[in-house]
Write a structure and sequence with these properties.
The complex is a heterotrimer of chains A (167), B (249) and C (349).
Chain A: E1 2-10, H1 15-28, E2 32-37, E3 47-55, E4 69-72, H2 75-81, E5 90-94, E6 108-112, H3 114-121, H4 127-138, H5 145-155
Parallel strand pairs in A: 1-4, 4-5, 5-6
Antiparallel strand pairs in A: 1-3, 2-3
Helix pairs in contact in A: 1-5, 3-4
Chain B: H1 25-38, E1 45-49, H2 57-60, E2 64-67, H3 73-83, E3 88-94, H4 95-101, H5 103-112, E4 117-122, H6 152-155, H7 161-165, E5 173-178, H8 182-200, E6 206-211, H9 215-218, H10 222-236, E7 241-244, H11 245-248
Parallel strand pairs in B: 1-2, 1-3, 3-4, 4-6, 5-6
Antiparallel strand pairs in B: 5-7
Helix pairs in contact in B: 1-8, 4-5
Chain C: E1 5-8, H1 9-19, E2 24-27, H2 35-43, E3 50-53, H3 57-69, E4 74-78, H4 80-96, E5 100-106, H5 122-126, E6 137-139, H6 144-161, E7 164-170, H7 171-175, E8 177-180, E9 206-207, H8 217-235, E10 239-242, E11 249-252, H9 255-270, E12 275-280, E13 282-284, H10 288-295, E14 300-305, H11 311-318, E15 325-329, H12 338-346
Parallel strand pairs in C: 2-3, 2-4, 4-5, 5-7, 6-7, 11-12, 11-14, 14-15
Antiparallel strand pairs in C: 1-8, 6-13, 10-12
Classes of the chains: A alpha/beta (167), B alpha/beta (249), C alpha/beta (349).
Chain lengths: 167, 249, 349
């Protein structure tokens, strides 16, 4: 079993962190994992995304051409990546910021207001975490909720730890 | 019993010189050797040799040494000193090396206050390549690449290294000397000694600029060359101590 | 089982260098390797080492030269445009027989190019790169664990042969995070009687690439270097074969391109097509002999690269039958596509 996950959104929405948490959580549960961020100038203000592969087997390529899971936190990301998805894939759409609907009919689409959900929990900057919660509910192969929470501690740098209770 | 008044310095090799008649490099090498003897640091001195006429400096000094690419001697000296912290690292450079191709390395090593001593021989010309214009070539001075004389409207004025380095906070000691007569040779020796002594004491970056003759490429005989320094170079390149934090203290 | 940590390639390389005893690092910022100097800046002072941000790549490699001559294990890292500048010092160090480790986390060129990972500096790395008749050892890790492991090896090879060793990665490898078991030090030590430490109780030593006299001194130095290269060619080739034995088509790829090629091999096999992958881990010395033997009875050989076909020339040189050698590459920071590799291999059927 292998999942090829792309998390995409605006820079600052925490997509790289979300990807890293998934990788750490799955690694702690014995999976093979890899994580590649978009980097450099793209990170500032533009769109950011990361590719996470989680597998029972050794990972051949960490790069993803046809994601089996796509999490989009903003609209440009939906436009950019939906068409690349593997048939039968899972698409999570952040409806707080994305008014458009998915066009593909050969994939499963879950619409959730991640940003609103996070805002109610204390910080709209935690939409990434809300999306991860939704993802592991749909795909329990990836990791458990407990592993994900532990991963947050492991993946987040010391100086940002004070926000963890919100998440 | 007779007293020895002059001995061949231990730090100097008994090698036949490759420098031209009337060249200042040999004088400066000897001064460095005498200083190393007097401070008794020959065994812990590491010489970084540049690209230029003094590329063979290691042949004349009885110390460990290392080559540097053209202009990079201060960077090579930085790397060496940061490994061999208790050694004395000398960077010996000419004007093309120090102010043209190596201007960046010169300024930044000085600005970091690297604990090295830079000995800069300024003869206002590229010697080894046969007499091209240097950053220090005087206004109107004829060279292979300024055949009509240096036109400052076109290529700018001669650069003054001490004054440039004196704008930086970190350097500990900056002095300009000359080797065109005996009095100034003695002054130069004192400056070199002070600069190296400061490194022995771990005080940081010290810089000694030395005006020096290049009769071959200037097209002058040795006597006229010395006179040219005194009459043409010294007014533009004032001989003085720019900074001595040891004295200020 | 040893504990795994999820670590970025650039960080893993820096930590491995410290484990290998690298005490000095000099570098200049450039994407996509900026984590490396940042990591050293934080970690080296903790272990009594020295980190210094140089004023340029030219200065950085010269500082490396100075530190190496002083006897330290020393490293620098950069990305493609910066690697061009470092060629000056690398050539000097090759001529002066000074060991060091240099990482080039490649990005697309020519010129400023882009910041996405690329393999377009293969020629520069494997053909010396600077002026003169010289080689550097070139290691090509394919994943984060290997990047760390080969970093340990890089320091040993550098000291063993007194030669600059290049770790040739690409931006994807540098930025990628994967589980890592921290490597152990090799335990090997190398005496450095040639180091510049002061002429105490011995004659003065001078380290230089320059040889002016006697007349044949420079040729002599070159012959010595060539002899060292011969020994390296004979002893230090590392390569990995995946499913090559029964393959009809063998893909040849290194680094990130090899990861993608590996995935294509798996998918081809799922479709009943016998493909294999040969992955050089040393690009110089190149595994020419192994490649020739393995590919002799194969129907087709396909080089996959993130370049216009640079390693491809070495593959062509190695294979007896040039007609069966094909090339597929993407340029300027683009990634090869699994689908396109599969399509190409299927076209051979």
């Amino acid at each position: 079993m292998t999942e090829e996950i792309i998390v995409a959104g605006f820079g600052g929405q925490g997509v790289l962190l979300a990807g890293k948490m998934l990788a750490v959580a799955a690694m702690r549960q014995g999976k093979h994992v890899s994580h590649i961020p978009s980097y450099g100038a793209e990170m500032r203000g533009g769109t950011a995304n990361c590719s996470v592969v989680i597998s029972d087997e050794e990972i051949a390529s960490p790069t993803i051409e046809h994601p089996s899971v796509l999490i989009v936190l903003n609209e440009p990301s939906l436009k950019k990546f939906e068409k690349t998805m593997a048939p039968g894939g899972l698409l999570l759409v952040n409806t707080t910021l994305i008014k458009a609907k998915a066009e593909r009919e050969d994939i499963k689409v879950v619409y959730q207001d991640f940003t609103d959900f996070a805002r109610e929990a204390g910080s709209d900057k935690s939409a990434n975490m809300a999306a991860l919660g939704c993802l592991i509910k749909e795909k329990n192969f990836i990791c458990s909720l407990e592993a994900l929470i532990n991963a947050l501690d492991e993946a987040v740098s010391q100086r940002n730890r004070r926000f963890n209770t919100i998440n | 019993m007779s007293k020895m008044t002059y001995a061949f310095p231990q730090s100097l090799s008994e090698t036949r010189t490759h420098y031209c008649a009337g060249c200042g490099h040999g004088i400066v090498h000897k001064l460095i050797a005498q200083v190393l003897d007097e401070l008794n640091i020959r065994e812990k001195t590491l010489l970084v040799a540049p690209v230029g006429c003094s590329v063979l400096a290691y042949k004349y000094l009885n110390v460990d040494g290392l080559e540097a690419a053209h202009g990079r001697a201060p960077a090579v000296a930085t790397g060496l000193k940061r490994v061999q912290k208790d050694k004395i690292v000398l960077s010996y450079q000419g004007d093309g090396d120090l102010l043209a191709i190596g201007a960046g390395e010169t300024i930044h090593a000085a600005n970091r206050g690297e604990d090295i001593t830079v000995i800069f021989l300024n003869n206002a010309i590229y010697g080894m390549t046969g007499g091209q214009m240097a950053p220090t070539t005087m206004e109107g001075q004829k060279t292979l690449t300024s055949p009509q004389g240096r036109d400052i409207a076109d290529v700018g004025s001669a650069m003054r290294a001490c004054e440039l380095i004196d704008t930086l906070e970190a350097p500990y000691y900056i002095e300009r000397c000359s080797v065109h007569d005996v009095k100034n040779v003695n002054r130069t020796k004192n400056a070199i000694k002070r600069a190296i002594k400061y490194q022995v004491e771990g005080r940081g970056y010290s810089f000694v600029e030395i005006l020096s003759m290049c009769p071959t490429n200037w097209g002058l005989d040795p006597v006229k060359s010395a006179k040219w320094i005194e009459e043409d170079m010294v007014p533009y390149y004032p001989l003085k101590k720019f900074r001595d934090k040891g004295e200020e203290a | 089982m040893e504990e795994k940590i999820l670590m970025k390639g650039n960080d893993a390389m820096a930590e491995a260098a410290i484990i290998a005893g690298c005490s000095h690092y000099f570098g200049y910022p450039i994407t996509p390797q900026n984590e490396v100097p940042a990591y050293f800046a934080k970690r080296l002072p903790q272990v009594g080492g020295t980190f210094l941000q140089a004023e340029s790549e030219l200065a950085a490699i010269s500082m490396v030269m100075g530190a190496s001559a002083g006897g330290a294990r020393v490293m620098t890292s950069t990305s493609s445009p910066g690697m061009s500048l470092k060629q000056e010092g690398i050539s000097y160090m090759a001529g002066a027989k000074l060991p060091c480790v240099i990482a080039n986390i490649m990005r697309g060129g020519p010129g400023l190019g882009g910041i996405a990972g690329s393999q377009a500096d293969y020629f520069q790395a494997t053909r010396g790169g600077g002026n003169g008749d010289y080689q550097t050892i070139v290691l090509a890790p394919g994943n984060v664990q290997e990047l760390a492991d080969l970093t340990i090896l890089a320091f040993d090879l550098a000291d063993k042969y007194r030669i600059p060793v290049i770790i040739l990665g690409d931006g994807y490898l540098g930025q990628m995070s994967e589980p890592l078991v921290l490597p152990k030090p090799s335990g090997k030590t190398f005496e450095k009687p040639w180091a510049i430490t002061g002429a105490k109780d011995r004659d003065p030593q001078f380290i230089a690439s320059m040889r002016l006299t006697p007349e044949n001194a420079l040729e002599q130095l070159n012959l010595e270097l060539q002899e060292t290269y011969r020994v390296i060619r004979e002893n230090e080739v590392i390569t990995e074969c995946y499913q090559c034995d029964d393959a009809d088509t063998v893909l040849v790829a290194y680094g990130t391109a090899a990861r993608i090629a590996n995935k294509a091999v798996i998918k081809l096999r799922e479709q009943g097509i016998n493909a294999g992958l040969l992955r050089p881990k040393t690009l110089w010395p190149f595994p020419s002999e192994i490649l020739r033997k393995i590919t002799n009875d194969k129907k087709k050989v396909l080089t996959v690269e993130m370049s216009a076909g640079q390693m491809h020339e070495d593959v062509l040189l190695a294979c007896d039958d040039k007609n069966k050698v094909d090339f597929y590459g993407r340029l300027g920071g683009a990634l090869p596509k699994v689908d396109e590799i599969i399509e190409r291999v299927k076209s051979y059927e």
